[in-house]
Amino acid sequence: TQQVFVILGSAGRGNAGAGWDQLRESEFRVSFHELSERPFPQLLEALSGLPRNSLVVDLSGFGGRSDNLVRPQEAMQRMSEVSTAPIYGVFDPLVGYGLVGAVATPMDAIGRATAALVLQVLSRKNADPLPAVQDLAAVPLVDWRQLRRWGLRQIQLPVGSVVRFEPPSFWRQH
Question: Which of 88, 78, 99 lies closest to 164 in space, CA to CA?
Fold first, then answer.
């Protein structure tokens, strides 16, 4: 990879901006470019003309600008369809809609932990202290179909990666 294109979204800075600043200050020998503050049709046009050996990091989680009239999943699907480079992101619900992957706490794990915390709060006595909030670890989540599309090898994924949408092997089927 020689060039990284970063989408921050219309909010621009905040947490995503901090990630962008960290990327720009890294010592990697790649050039970073920002694809933010563009209307959605212009973002799609930019994605369709990216050079070889590039990748896209969507830090917005919403397909660029928040004024899109499409759902984030639909925006990501459209972005992926036209992009000439693989797209990585920060929200696991978009894995399966065109993202190659994301390093995130899976939303289903957040839901289970939230439900357990609510049950603990509801079952406590008034004098009992509130339960501690559990820290949930982020894990690499990838879409097997996107790995195949971009010629990426599963063996090169970080240990502990969760691969979604991989068809069952012959042995699992029988």
Answer: 99
- Name the pTM for this structure: 0.80
Q: What is the pLDDT of residues 120-138, one digit of tens each?
A: 888 887 777 877 777 788 8
- pLDDT value at position 128? 77
DSSP class of 95: B
Listed residue (1, 58, 10, 9) closest to 30, CA to CA: 1
Which residues of 2-128 form beta strands (DSSP E)? 3-7, 31-34, 54-58, 87-89, 101-104
Q: How far apart are the first and last CA of the chain?
A: 40
CA dihedral 78, 89, 160, 164 (to 10 degrees): -20
* CA angle (128, 131, 132) in 5-degree steps: 140
What is the distance between the alpha carbons of residues 166 and 174, in angstroms, rounded to a whole number?
Answer: 16
What is the DSSP-derived secondary structure letter of residue 154?
G
Q: Which alpha helices (H) appear in 4-71, and where do they start and end?
A: 14-24, 40-47
Residues 6+ apart with CB under 8 A from 160: 139, 140
Interval 46-61 mean pLDDT: 92
